[in-house]
Amino acid sequence: MGLQETIRQALSNVRSNLLRSVLTLLIIAFGIMALVGILTAIDSIIYSMSDNFSRMGANSFNIRPAREDGPRGNRNGRSVRGEPISFDEALNFKERYNFPAKVAVSMYCTNNATLKYADEKTNPNVRVEGWDENNMDVNGYELSLGRNFTRLEAENGARKAIIGKDVVNKLFNKKPEKALGEILTVGNLKYKIIGVLAEKGSTMGMSQDNRVYIPLLDAKRYYGTANTSYRVNVGVRNAEDMEQAVGVATGLFRNVRRLKTSQKNDFEIRKSDGLIDILKENTLELRLGTIAIGLMTLLGAAIGLMNIMLVSVTERTREIGIVKALGATKRNILVQFLTEAIVICQLGGIVGIILGVLIGFALSLFLGGSFVIPWAWIFLGFSVCFFVGLVSGLYPALKAAQLDPIESLRYE
Q1: Distance CA 184, CA 280 (A)
Q2: Which residue has the higher pLDDT, 11 or 356?
């Protein structure tokens, strides 16, 4: 009996015990669905963040206060939690960083600003940030209309603003050309719109377009406090110079912070591609947990499938006797029952993979990720189903192959 005929016979036997087969198939499908669905969602989110960071610039890094737990101060060389980066420190570093790179200084202001234009206003959920003239290039933003801040506007303060696509949609009826030159009220302050950013999309469910950017000094003047920490991002022109650029930045920022030789850094430098590596490391345990849950579900499915195959052997004892009497070998019977078990598992795997991919796609959309076809997890799903079918069908197949043909023919 050829492989095609064996598979055809297996499908016929599955149809003859349809309800039992479907129930087992669904148990397998749900296990594979959980496995493929969550892993697909994780990969989609990581892919989306990688894409966002690549648009931000793979050859960029940022400087931030160190976050190790420890006493305040920086004596005796002990690890400390770094002090916020002050406005003067950020600008001092920007002026003195003598390397083929751009330094961008920015500041977070608020996440719950209300914007007004004429009779229209937004919900109190707009993010406001202070920018200098370099943030646009270093962070990978593009203008769809208008212009960027000049250095004079950023450092001396000017009532100018650059807005995101969502703000245009809410206040200017999706017409960016209507927004240019208009006066926008941000909280209680009025700004003239000089630029509209191209659409950026969402990351982790947070819109990158529901934002307004104001000059850095204005942000400091109206939103800054004594504890405000300013963000310093550096975009290197040549990716091959990244390590050298980080080394120069480390030495200079130690000097800006006035750290002694014996003192450890109270700041940290993170490269944009390093953030993705950190994210992948942090999701490793989640991936392993997902695989463990999926395998436990499939273990239950394997036990159920083995039980069904044993029942099938008992019910088909007389049939086995007839087939053996007609010349079928033990190997033929073994292959027949193994094929049936594998076919049931693979059918369940196909259903589970389709459901898992759809659920992963839905989760990635909900969390603001970009969907990717999870070829690795699809292959894993088929491989696991084949293994489960082989293991759960082996004992029933061996039992069927060992049946005595004469005793089988007498079986009632």
Answers
A1: 41
A2: 356
